[in-house]
What does this fold into?
Amino acid sequence: MDNRQPITHQSDPAEAAVRLIDSFARRMHPAPDDYHVVQRHLDQQLRARYRTLNSADRADVISDALLKVMGSARRGRIDPSGNPAGYLWRVVENRAKDMVSEPQSMRLEDAGEIRDRDDKVAVLLDADASSSEVTAALRVARHDPELVKTVAEWLRLAQEMGKAPTTREVAACLGVSHDTVARRIRRFKAHIARERDNG
It folds into this structure.
């Protein structure tokens, strides 16, 4: 009996990217294998070329780039006979360059620091949080401007809506993917937990 695994074409990142973008254009669910091959390849490229980006940053870059490429593909703006994989990499690289060129820290006032917000808004973000803990966590996170902007937008929407906004609602305001928002909110909740423990 031959137990060897069949050799498939899905291991080629460029071909996987072409199929992935084609699925975006056709508004079909992409093959999980293609998505993971492309994601893994882009992460390796980013790790090699942009060493200052950590794993969370790289994941954000890739998610945001894929969201942009999906939108372009669905609007027919990507020529399938051209170089779709090259286009995807250019979008990824441009997003990575934007991220590494952003300021390394941010004044909280620039990102919408909590002002006169009561604990009701903080509790929407974290059931055990107080507004002072959220503010303290924002101060700790000021060296991560993307995270601070995301949390500030989340809090702004929460105050306007009177309820917790969805990650998709926050993502639409920021122009990033909802997965990126979810990851950043999880990171921020970890900051809140540390502030609570330290308190």
